[in-house]
Amino acid sequence: MEIRIQNVSMTYPNGKQALKDLNLDLQTPSLIGLLGPNGAGKSTLMKLLVAALMPTSGSIQVDGMPLAKTDRLLKAQLGYLPQDFGLFDELTVVQFLDYMVALKGLRDPKTAIQEVIRAVNLEEKAKAKIRTLSGGQRQRVGIAQALLGNPPFLIFDEPTVGLDPEERIHFRNLFSQTAQNRLVLLSTHIIEDVQSVCDQLVVIDHGRILFTGTPAQLIQAAVGHVGVFWEREVTQGQGLHITSRVNTSQGIRCRAVADTLPAYAQPEEPSLEDAYLYLILQEAIQ
Amino acid sequence: MCKIFRYECKRLLWNKFFVGLLLVVLFYGWQVLNSVTILGVSHTAPFSPWSFGDYLSRMSPLLWIGALLFLTFFTSPKARRTAVLIDATQVVPRKYVLTRCAAALVGTGLLTLACLVEAAVFYGWYFGWFDWGTLLFPALVTLVPLLIFALGSGWILGSIKPWLVYSWMLIPFVCMALPLPKTLGIWDGSFFNEYPLTLGTLDPSFTMPVTVIMMQCILLAAGAALLFFHSGKNRGS
Amino acid sequence: MKTIQLFPLELRRLLQSRLTWLIVLLTVLSPLAGLILYKPASASTMLSIYLANPALAGGVGGGILFGLLTVFELDRAHRSRVAVLMDAVVSPLCMALVRLLALLAAALLTLIVTMLVWFPISWVLIGSVFGGTDYVLAYLLFMGLALPLSILAAASAYQMTRRADLSLVLFAAFAGLSLTIWTDHWQLCWLNPSVWALSDDFSNFRIFRSVAYMRLTWLAALAGIWTLSYLCVRQYGKGLLGSLARNMRQVYRPMISLLLLTCSGTAYAVQPMVDHSNPDESVMSFYDLPYLEGILCSGRTAQVYPNTTAGTVTGRATYQFQNTSGQAQTVAFGIQPGYTISSVQANGANVPFSVGDYQEYNEVMLEVTVPAEEAVELAVEYSGFPQENRNLSTMQGAAEISTEYLCLENAALAPRLLNVLPDEGMYPATVEVILPSSMMVIPFGTNEAEIVAEHEDGTSTWRYEDNGVGGILYAGDYIRQDIQTDGITIQFYYGRKHQAVMEEAGAVNAVKTVVDYCTEHYGPLSFSTGGTLKLIQSRVSGGGYASNGASLLDEADFTAANLRDSSKGAIPGEVMIHELVHQWWGLGNMFDSFDNTNPWSAEGLTVYTTYRIVKELYDEEYAQKHYVEQWQQAVDDYYLNFYVRNTEYLAGLPEEEQLQISNSLAYVRQYCEMPLKILKAQELVGGEEAMDQILNSLFNRELNWSYPYLTYQEFLDACGLTEEDLTLV
Fold first, then answer.
1. How far apart are CA C194 and CA C20, in angstroms?
2. pLDDT digits (tens, 9 = 90+) for C709-726
3. What is the ipTM of this complex?
4. Angle C386-C388-C390 (CA atoms, 0-180°, nearest 5)?
5. Contact across the interface for C169 and B66, Cβ inside 8 Å
6. CATH classification of A2-213, choosing from 3.60.20.10, 3.40.50.300, 3.75.10.10, 3.40.190.10?
């Protein structure tokens, strides 16, 4: 599956420009992490990809065909977990998934439901009414419905919100396995999730793409711009963006990103989080 | 779509809202039957199509509210949050909306059926009267256009703004307060009280002037058209 | 304590909502509907039109709006998912109470704003009869109390069901029942109290008391239900029953609910406003009691002390009996069902008595054992709050007792003797009544009352002589105007506040015209008391009556509203015409009044004559429409009624419905069918002039003293017709 986004801009009726002249190619198999600060345009991009919105200009092509003409075809191959969604509280987990199976027109609903319930670890709650589920369990129902029928194209918007650490690791692995033969787009704020599973990264801010490439490429770009120092050594902090402060027996150890590191800072190997923050910092400076 | 229909029916009917609504409708109906219908309207028997029609028109505000409340299951802000998931599926919007509408229609139909059964029990109990076939036509002509129109118009309004459905519930009360033209007599019940007196015979059989039939047909057509055209535009809500 | 702290916070939040202000605005405007669309008070007095109707409409509109606001506000926390945050800081029970208090405060605020806005408008509309007390009480009771009732009902529904949609349906049905099915039950219509009229010229405390009683009964009931629903407020993730069980652990909570519901149930069951008279008005068993042998009544007295503040009456009545039977006798009296008998003494000694359970025509039977002594003076002490006839429970207000007005009729004045014949054909009676000096006492009949003592506390004792077992007494802030007509002096009594309207309406001329018409057509009245006739304006009551020497004029006969109404402006009060005509047709030896189901009664000729007066002296078209066509309509409605045509179904109906149909028969036959027959007779005998001559001859006929009453046969004979000739098709 190949999705080509060409010169796409999106302006909402209230005048807010969410995306500006966006170009992006997505191909199977890959697990693409979509990163960006709040309000960067991530959710808008996802809505465009699920044909919930039409771009103001530009085109989106799915396997060479314009999305506007093939939206049913796209939806037949799509699993989507939005950031904010509702469930039918009065149904049980199985009933809700059965409902979604019917909407998706899948054959052999029983097996499909069993598979996804197992995948999201909800066997115990399969017959529970949705209204009785916790926030994390509801999130897992949302993931389960997206996985129904093994769709070749999956979009997850903040999928691990509300999950406990153990579940997060479980889902990271699940996404990683899922992406072996599919196209998975994962939007999240949690860099760890992206770092551990994504083979490709897209960073957007203010409706523009700041970076596309592998996590290693993003980290490489930040080499020499990450340093550590003792807080007591700080003489001038201009241009310095502290990313962590750790209390130690010798004092407070700080980690920071900067375009030019000060002399008292000792260069350090950047993490993906450092690299992301450095990218956003650069954008802000520009 | 059968499965969707089944689940939608379950959502609408298998809850305390429907049970509560049913009890309220039955209680209200029994009060109407015992206080008003029992005396008959326009010199006719309590079990004449005219008195029965009067009973139905007195019940119609509650049925109207019931039908619109069923729609709130699909148009409420909470339901709209689920629509995000549904919009991402390949389901044909028109089919889906019509399926949901059919479920709402079943709910409304069950409420109506409860009213009819209650009246049948009442007629059997008090008068030993069981010739229910004669009441079918007035029941159909009174309620079907009204309820289809309620669903069609309510669906459109609900998809614009959820609170509009609640405002639309006040329409029957507005109709009761305003002087309506005779062609809309079914809406405020005046048709069943006034028209038989103009027929010049005692215990007239049930007939309707062409204008009233046309008005009911227009309502029915308008309701169906609103449902059909709207169903093509929207699915989740 | 927390509740008190949170209340201003919640009220401020509520008042910051645009929806609240929209509801407040619509509620303030809702009395407007009472001027245009919703007019439950049908009387034509100014206060009915411009005060009662707007206030009632305000109550209905405001009540519904505040019910909706309540559901919306209670659901808001769940809808916007802040409940989980709030529950973490404040107990849901505490918050439920705070929300209720905030809504009630908003309702109070709305009421105050409404009253301020509508005060000048009402003043201008009502004109000279506007009164501040009536205004405040009408808005407080008719409108104000509807708001807390609606809030409690809607909040209870929501707290029990925790669903906005179901709460809306429950509230809609509850309001719908009050507005439709329950309108005939004054205690059930919680939203729209049964108020059919407010008096312009006299006070309205009785109807205000009745509405207040109904409202307070419902307030207790709904507060009880709310307390019960308060126990259902969901806590600790439990459902309805779980939360209920948990919240009931503090025993005082269910006890309060139970107490309120018991209070309400008791208040409903033992309401003091209306009696339990037999709804079958064809039964007059008190009149059918056989007279006792060997005992006669030679006279009676009554000392009556109305309490014009509390609306109650205390009295002492004495009866002189000649018991020649040599044995104890059980004497029966009809007493006001609202009164209790504190003691009955015969010649100074207590004697046994009992008060029955059966009531009819606003009376209950008191039975007293009179000892076997030849001369017995029986003294009965009674007191209480007069109740009104339950068959007129949606038209309450007649039993008004205040410093402005009172009317005590028969058993409400003093126990009415039922089964003892008079000595020498007379029941001489002396009645004394103590009232504020500002009130004028007017006995309804030929007698005059006079002041016999004036007291330091601003009251006076009035005394008058009467004859008969009953008697009617009017008192109030009246003025008297004497009208001279052909040989009769009419003492015209009307309320002081009404003077301007009476003068503008030309009431004196209207009265004179009616008397002249009847005298000219049927002959002069023969009076036993020097040719005087009292015409007394009663508080608005929807009708009237007449007796020898007195007729009633309804307050609504002449109102400023009627004068403004061009379609009715020219026609004077029809109750006044009707009751004056009764002096010719209906009193003395004219009709046998013992059978109230007989179609041939005083009403046939009186209604016919009223029609003729309206037709000839005022408006022919109006007379045709409001008399002939309405008679015909009523007769048609009755005879075409399904149950009248198919009597086999009638027996299957509940008793109340059966009586409703059978009671309407007597009315239709006397008031509608007979006038139609007389009208037909008029056509057959050659027209109005010929009929007038026949009626003149009947009025002046020579009486057969063995049966002096005018019979239908005599009427037919005078017309030269048979019963069949007058059969209506």
1. 29
2. 788 888 999 889 888 888
3. 0.86
4. 145
5. yes
6. 3.40.50.300
